[in-house]
Amino acid sequence: MARKHEQERNEAIKKLIIDAALDICLQEGYKEITVRRIGERIGYSTGVIYYHFRDKQDIMDSVDRLLDEETYRTVFSLIDPEKPLRDNLSTIYDYTCNLAYNNVEAYKRVFTVSRIEDNDYTRNMWLSMIEKCLVRAKERGEISNPNTALLARCLLSYIMGYNLLFFEINRTSVAEALNAKETAINAIIEGITK
User: Fold this and answer.
1) Which residue in 68, 84, 165, 167 is a FRET match for 51, CA 20 to 30 A apart?
2) What is the pTM of this model?
3) pLDDT block averages, 10 residues each, the chain of length 194
4) Which CATH number fits domain 2-53: 1.20.1250.20, 1.10.10.60, 3.40.50.1360, 1.10.8.60?
5) Residue 84 in 3-state DSSP?
């Protein structure tokens, strides 16, 4: 019983540390997170924090995973594999556009090309979600491409390129990006239905 209580206490402290790091990140930015600041915020010494995490990067990896999971759950709740593929692609583009303008820090942590490429966990979550939509679209006869896994990789790359172009390079408005969305979706749909 004591061991279970200790394990629960350790998990509670780890969650407290991650939540503090996340709060600092959201309020002041990613670069402002330090082990010392986390300790000050939660009232624990840096030694306690290092007992639960190897280093700052270990904390940041946990924060990133939490944010990835929250973003994934949000987007996945909006996606419905039973809807036409066009609708699901539109939903993904709408979400990324709005996130890019309303929460730049979250957008950059989740959707930038380097973030996706450097993080197998994030990439696999997104690939899985996109592939579920593609498999269902294939079953409905919307697409005929037999390799939905490869097609999901191509779509994720296209979405990342779209985001890079509009939000990192051109710095367009939401209206411009959403306007261009229809062209992008039409190109995707036309490309995968032939």
Assistant:
1) 68
2) 0.67
3) 84 92 80 90 94 91 80 82 89 80 70 57 80 91 87 82 68 75 82 74
4) 1.10.10.60
5) coil
